[in-house]
Request: fold
Amino acid sequence: MSSRPDFHASDGEAGSVIDVTKRGQAEQATAKLATIVETSDDAIISKSKRTEEALWRSEALLQAELADTKLLQDISSELVSEGDVDALYEKIVAAAVTIMRSDFASMQRVYPERGTGGGLRLLAFRGFNSEAAKFWERVRADADCTCGIALRSGIRIIEPDVARPEIVTPGSPHHSMYLQNGIAAVQSTPLRSRSGELVGIISTCWRQPHRPSERDLRLLDILARQAADLIERNRAEQALARLAAIVETSDDAIISKDLNGIIITWNRGAERLFGYRAQETIGLPVTILIPPDRIDEEATILARIRRGERVNHYETIRRRKDGTLVDVSLSVSPVADGKGKVVGASKIARDISERKRFDEELRASEAHFRTLCDSTPALIWISGPSGCEFVNRSYLDFFGASLDDVRGSGWVRYVHPEDRERYVGGFLATTVRRAFFEGECRFRRADGIYRQTKTVGVARLSPAGDLLGYVGSTYDITDVKEAETVLREADRRKDEFLAMLSHELRNPLAPIRHAVTLLQEADDGEIRRRACAILDRQTEHMTRLVEDLLDISRISRGDINVRKQEVDLAAVVQAAIETSHPLVEARAHRLDITLPGTPVSVFADHQRLAQVVSNLLNNAAKYTPRGGRIGLEVSRADGAVSISVRDNGFGIPADELPRLFGMFAQLDGTRGRAPGGLGVGLALARQLVELHGGTIEARSDGPGRGSEFTVRIPLPGTESASV
Amino acid sequence: VTRLLIADDDTDMRQSMQLLLERAGYEVGLAGDGAVALELQRERPFDVLITDIFMGEADGLRAIENFRREFPATRIIAMSGGSGRLQSKGYLAAAGVAGADATLRKPFAMATLLEALGQVTNTAAPPSQAAP
Reply:
C-alpha cells in the first residue's frame, strides 16, 4: 500500500510544482493560525511549546491535505483528457487508498444499469488477491456486505471493526471473506450521478480496526463524484456507440434534416437506398430525393414537423441518384433541442418496392383465384376447424344465401331433413379419417326446390401435415339423375319390347303349325279349307307385325317417307275400314261411319293416311270389350280436316295419356283386350300425321269411359277454296 | 269319349286345336277366356282343361285355380308362349304351382300335346291330393 506522502520530501520536480500552489495555501493557513493564537484568551506563553507542536502537526496535516487535493485535481483533469476508461478506474481506486490511508480499495458499478434485481460488478481494485477479486467480481444486490447494504440503502456503510460487526451479519459468507482476507475495517460509499442516480459503490478496507475521519470521508465524496461521472460518461458513450451502430447497420435509410429541409446526416442505409454517398448529400435540400410531381409533399411534411407532429408510415415514391423511382414508406419525427424547441427532423425511409410487388402479385393471384372460383358453375367451398369458411359465388347464388348464412354449420340447414343425418354424419366421419369425401344429398335451392347433388372433397393439410379443413365442390346432378332414369326406363321398355316381340312373333306359329298338320293329314275338304283360312289369317297377322317392325326401324332412323298427292278422304277411310274389318268383326263391335256430305280431298300419302286410320280403328277394337261401339267421323273445320275415332271401351287413365304416343306404349291391366300388336301403332300414327303437317290427340274421361282419338290434317290454302 | 275343353283367346289357335283333337277322337269344347271356360265346365264337366295362360292378362292362372278348387278331378294342361312381361318359363312354372298337371310351351307339335294328354288321363291323381 502507498504510504502517507512525506511533507519533507519536497525535492524533485513534483515537489517544486506542489510548492507553488502549496505555499500560498500554507501561508493563508499560517495566517489563520496566527489570528487564532493572537485572539486567544488562553495564556499563550505557557502554551508556547504546545503551540509549536500544534503548528507542526497542522503543517503536516496541511501538507497531506494539499497532496490529496492535488491528487483529486489530477484525476479531474485526467477524466477529461484520458480516453482509457479502465486506466481511470485504476487511478480512482489508487486515489481512494491514498485518501483513506486504507490497505484495500475497490470500485463497482451497478448492473443492470436500470431496473431491479441486479447487483454490483467490479471495475477496479487494490490490495485483494486474485481469489478475493474473483469473489467480489459480482455482488448480488441482496449480499450481506457493506457494498451490498450501501447499494440497497443508498447511504454510506462503515464497519470500523469487522471482528465485532455492527451491520454485517457475523459468519455470513461475505463476513468470512473479510476475515479471510485480513480485513479488519471496511466502508462502502455510494456513487451517485449528477441526476442523483446510484451508479456504483467505492469501498476501502483496513487491516486494523479503523473509523475513517470526517475529513477523509469528505475527500472521498469528492472522489466518488468523479468516479460517478466517469461511470456515467462511459455509459453514455456506450449508449451512443450502440445507437450509432444501429443507425449505421440499419437496412432503412435514416436521414436527419433541419427545419429548412437541409440534410444533416445520412446513414449507410440511405446510401444504399438512394445511391448518394453521405458526403454528396449533406448540406443539400432533401428535395433532391423527391420526384417533381411530388415536390409539394416536402412542404406539408415540414409544416407538420414544425408543429411537433410525427408522420408515420407515409407511403410515397422517391427518386434515386440514377433517376429511377422507388416505393418507400416514410416515418418523420421532429427533433428537439434541450429546451424542447423543434430544430429539425429525423426521417426513416423504408424500401417497400418488394412489398408493393408482393402485394400486387398477391392481388393478381387473388383475382385469378376469385375469377376461377366465381366463374365455375360448381359450388366450391372451403371448410376449417369450425366448419364452412368460404364459398364461391355459384354456391351463394344456388342457395340464395349470404356467406354468414352458410358459415360454420349454417349450410346444414339446406340439406333435406331426411338426408341430414346420413350426409352430414358421413362427411364428419370422413374428415376424422382425413379421407377423400364423396357424397350425395338433396340440397334446397333458392327457389325452394330440393335438388339432387353430388359433393366431393379433399383434406387440406398444413406443410407439417396437420388437418386444416376440407376443400370441395358440389354439383347439381338432378338433370343427370333424371336423364339416367329416362335412359333406364327406355332400356327397360326396350327389353320389354323384345320380350313382347318374341311373344307376338311366336304366337301365330302355334296355329300355323297346327294348320299345316291338318293339311298334311286331313282329306276332308272342309277341314282343309278351314286350315287354309287359319294359315291365311295368321300369315297376314305376321306380315302386319313385320311391317310394323320395319316401320319402327324407319321411325328410329328418321327414314320414313310420305308421297303426297291429292287423295279423296272417303277412299282413304274405306281402305282403313277394309284393313281393320276382320278385327272389328272378330270382336263383334258395331262401327258407325260419318262422312261429310261433299267429298273432301287432302294432299296426302293415301296408303300412310289409311294406315293411321286403320291403327286407330284397331286400337279401338282391341281396347273395347266385345260387342262395343266404334264411331268414325270425318269433318272439316278451320282449314283442316279432322278424322276422329271414338269408342265406348276401356278408356285411358289420365296418367297414361302423356306417354300414349311413345314407342312400345301398351296399356296394362286391361282385362279382355284383344291380344297382339307391338305397341307401336300410336307412335307410328303420330309420326305419319306429323309428316303430313297435322296433329293427333287422345282424350278419355278415364277408365271404363271410352276414348277418342282425333287426327287433324291441314287443308292446303289453294285447295280449301276449291274443295 | 274323353272330353277336352280348350281355352284360348286366339280364335285360330282354338280352331286349329279343335280340328286336330277331334280327328284324334276327342270331344272338344271351346272357350275364349277363363270365365267362359268355367261356365261351360259347370254346365257339363270336361275331363281335361287345356288352357292358355295369357288371355288378355294372366287369366289362365285364375282359371287353373278355379278349376282346381271346384273340379279337383279335372286334369289341367297349361300352355303359353310367354308374354311381354315375363318369359313363358316363369308363367308355366307358376301354372304348375297353381295346379296344372302338365305344361306346354307354344308352339308345340300335335304329338307333344297328345302325349301330354295321354299322361294326364292315365295317371289321374286322387282328387284329395290334387288340390294345391
Q: What stands out?
A: Chain B has a mean pLDDT of 82. Residues 17 and 70 of chain B are 25 Å apart (CA to CA).
